Structures are given as structure tokens and as C-alpha cells.
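Weekly modeling sync, notes
Attendees: AB, CL, MP (scribe)

Item 1: holo prediction request
CL wants a bound-state model with zinc ion before deciding which constructs to order. AB pointed out that an apo prediction alone won't tell us much about the pocket. Agreed to run with the ligand included and paste results into these notes for async review.

Input as submitted:
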Amino acid sequence: MSRAQYLYRLQAIDSQIDETNQYLARIKANLGKTKALLNAEAKAKTTAQSLREVKTRLTNFEFELKGLSDKIKTQEKRLYGGKNMTAKEAGNLQEEVASLKRRYATIEEQLLEIMIATEETETIDNETQATLVEIQATWKDEQAKLTLLQRQFEQKLVSLKEQRSIAASKINASDMAEYNQLRAKKNRRAVTGVKEGACLACNVSISNSKLQRTRAGNDLNYCGTCGRILYVL
Ligand SMILES: [Zn+2]
């Protein structure tokens, strides 16, 4: 194999390494929580919190209503219990019972509103929790696929690096330095194939004398136009 051919082979492996690294970077960017999942989580958290709040209000109102009911019963028992009390005392007690009953009616009305609100909040919360579960399932599925792909590309990278070290061992230090320098300058393409007498990188024809020297492969020859190392395919 000629010096240019060894470099051409190395470049083919390097291109695959670049490509694999690009895939891995893209996979890495897509690993982790997605915007859709984060949104669904935030929404589910908010509706669950609203539901807790409305349920607490409901419990408090039920508790207050029960307290009022007990108090009304107690005071009515006193009022109609036949115990001796003055007309003023009876009048006061009657007024108190009436006031308690008014309060009871108000709370009862509010309680009804809270019950309706609780039901509505519960429906909304059920929906957002179900949506979250759905999005989580899709997300987990996607993450599993991405993780599998990531592992496959990582394995491929290991094997490519092994191939590269074998290919690189055949190349002398000055050719390697030349390759690295050109690759950095020429858009990661240091070596170009030559087909039907033309450079495949820039499409410009190579002179016959240069083609002959390139075919002989004793030294490195360069495309006069794009400056890349020539390798006749
Ligand atoms: Zn060229």
C-alpha cells in the first residue's frame, strides 16, 4: 500500500469516528427530561395542589357545619328543656339559636359551592394526572431506545478507535503530522480520491505527470487547486 493509501484509509476511519461522535452528541442532547414531560409534571403538580386545597376547605366547612349543628341542638334543648329561665334569658337564647341557624344556612350554601368546585377540580386533576402518565410512558420508551442507541454507538466508537490505532501504526510521523494539519485546515478532508483524472474534492483535472507520480505512490502528491493529498482510486 502507498503512503497516500494508508492516509486515505485512516481518513475513512476518522470520518466514521466523527460521524459516530456527532450521533452520540445528538443522543446526549435528547437524553433527560423533555419539555413536554417537564410541562406535564408542572401541570400535574399544580392541579394536585389545587385539589388538596379545595379538599381542605371542604373538610373545614363540613367541620364547621357539624359544630354549628351540635350547638343548635344543645341550645334548643336548653330552650325547650323546661328549665326555669327568665323571659329575657329565653329571649336571648332564642335569638342566639336563630343567629346560629342563619349562620348554618350560609355555611351550608357555601359548602355546596365548595363541593361542586371540588368535583370540578378533581376532574381536571384526573385528566392532568392521566396525561402525565401517558407522557411519562412515551418518554421512558424513547429514553430506553436512546440509551440503547447510545450504547451501540459507544461500542462502535471503541471498535473504530482500535481500527484507527492499527491504521495509524502504518503511517510515519511526518505523514501523520501532515495529515493532521491538512485535516484541520481542509474541512476534515486531508486526502482526496482521484477518479477519471480529476480530484474528487474540487473536480479539477490532475496533470498526467502528477497522476503517474501519484500512482507510483513513493511520495505524497497534492492537488494543485485544493491542496489535498491525492490518492488514485
Ligand atoms: Zn482538489
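Recorded for review: DSSP finds five helices and three strands in the chain.
Action items: CL to compare against the apo run; MP to circulate these notes.
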